[in-house]
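Quick one - inputs below.
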Amino acid sequence: MKVLIPSPLRSYTGASEVDAEGDTLDAVLRDIDRRHPGLRFRMVDEQDRVRPHVRVFVDGEQVFDLGRRMGPGESVQIVQALSGG
Amino acid sequence: MVARTPSRKRRTRRTGARTGPVLLVATRKGAWILRGDRARRSWSPDGPHFLGQIIHHLVLDPRDGRTLLAAASTGHLGPTLFRSSTLGRTWTEARRPPAFPKAGDGGTGRSVDHTFWLTPGHPSEPGSWYAGTSPHGLFRSEDGGDSWEPVAGLDGSPRYREWMGGPQDGTPNGPKLHSVIVDPRDPAHLYLGMSSGGVHESTDAGASWRPLVDGMEVVEGFDRSNLAFHDPHCVRICPSRPDRLYQQNHCGIYRLDRPATRWKRIGRRMPKSVGDVGFPMVVHPRDADVAWVFPMDGTSVWPRTSPGGRPAAYTTRNGGRSWVRLDGGLPRRDAWWTVKRQAMAADGGEPVGLYVGTTQGEVWASRDEGRRFHCVARHLPEIYALEAGEPAA
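Output:
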């Protein structure tokens, strides 16, 4: 599936969109981290909480639960939160 | 940026190093490396590195003179560490940055907001490093900073967790574990400071810790027996006499000569109009009676500016019995910057070079132990930390 990468994380991917696989959102993020090591820890902390100024959407719907099941054809958007003006 | 200090008739002696020193400038918006000539008169800026990232500390490994570690975070992303074995020409991200253990089911675990402090390990343990974090955490790497593990004797102690408080305790930008010190005589003998947590000592490589706060004062009206009320800002060990420690605290300047365990407040001899509040403290590399501080205004609401808008370092050359103001070359008035706890450093030269990085993004250098300062860089972002190092040739 396609995953949209925000500019602060493109130093890891070198691209604004990458491919990843997984049957849950957590699996997708771990797959991205396998392909682009270090990215996940910048957006998800060691307690598996999405960091305060990062937002994750699936097909435009904000998701807080990394265990969310991913369906065929869905896409993930990772964005930096609008914080600080 | 300014890269050269004015010529002087009296030449300053060389540092003794094969090349000139480097100044490692960590700022709110990236890092810069100022490469000095052997006379410490000319400084070549190299940067920005990591433009836009918050660099909390940038440290050169004195054991090889080449390895740099940089503690980084950004406004949106979590923390990480970068390593360079080429004095900053190339960088590699740490494979496993400092991170707290995952909480068990139902528990609320802590997460590292940023790594605040980096200390190279003992010379007998090449590749070892310590990191202090916010919130309070102590981590150790044994592979040159590539992977980090919590020092369990601190993080796993319920008593210490109580003293550390939560993310909302401590200083405005979060509680800091800082001043990680390795006794040059014994790699198992460690000290550390915690903002809102006190000074602590371990003699078993971090497996167990004990407080070292006797004699330290706390804010009036608070209970000094509660470790959470103790706020050391910066603790230093004297390389030439490792039984001597100096400390700049929220409540004064102190000295401790081991094996005694009671700190003596030596800041009482500072001018009353200036006081003995500040953040950084620096010790002389060869004379344990010499130290420097850079006071700030800690009155009323804690403006954290230079007292009266007149910045100055103060030095003692007798272990704190008296203090001398050092403001040669610094602005004489209307300068409202100050110097954070990691942003003052000394080199190993003769005479010692003294350096300060300001909250206004200037680097001031002295080749004569603080008697006269020259601005060697300006218009940088707010400086969080400044270290002086001697690179390998």
